[in-house]
Amino acid sequence: MAAALRAAADKGDIAEVSRLLEVQDAATLRKIINSQDSETDLAPLTLAAAGGHQNCVAALLAARANPDLSVEDAGNRTALHMAAYDAHVEVAQLLLEARADACLMSSGGTPSDIVSQRAKEWRIGGGDGEEDIDRLNKILALLSGADR
């Protein structure tokens, strides 16, 4: 069940994520909601956040997924670090509303550090243009409000 939940979250399959969350008894749900893959160390919430799957993130948070669970194999990044990296504004907002810690350090720094670095990279010629920079700036504004 844990692997199926991770796969559904990774694909953004909200119907399957919801089905898997609903059919579990409370004890099983506590076990699988934050289960990390043995190879990648990624948990369902981290996968959904990295993919920008807002509905899956909301469902997992409602089922009490830990927003501050760090991924050792990914430089101790949390779901918020992942959402910040790929400029998933709505996902970052959901995580912050769930009280994700915006000050947690990863190997790349805090989520704010990651956003700042990505903005520099995209300005130099990496991203899809101004739209990417705008999304990063929105996340930076959310994060600066959360730091207070």
UniProtKB/TrEMBL annotation:
Q: Which residues cross the membrane?
A: none
Keyword annotations for this protein? ANK repeat, Repeat
Start and stop residues of the ANK repeats: 75-107
Q: Which Pfam families match?
A: Ank_2 (PF12796)
Q: Which InterPro entries match?
A: Ankyrin_rpt (IPR002110), Ankyrin_rpt-contain_sf (IPR036770)
What's the protein called, per UniProt?
Uncharacterized protein
List the top taxonomic levels of the source.
Eukaryota, Sar, Alveolata, Dinophyceae, Suessiales
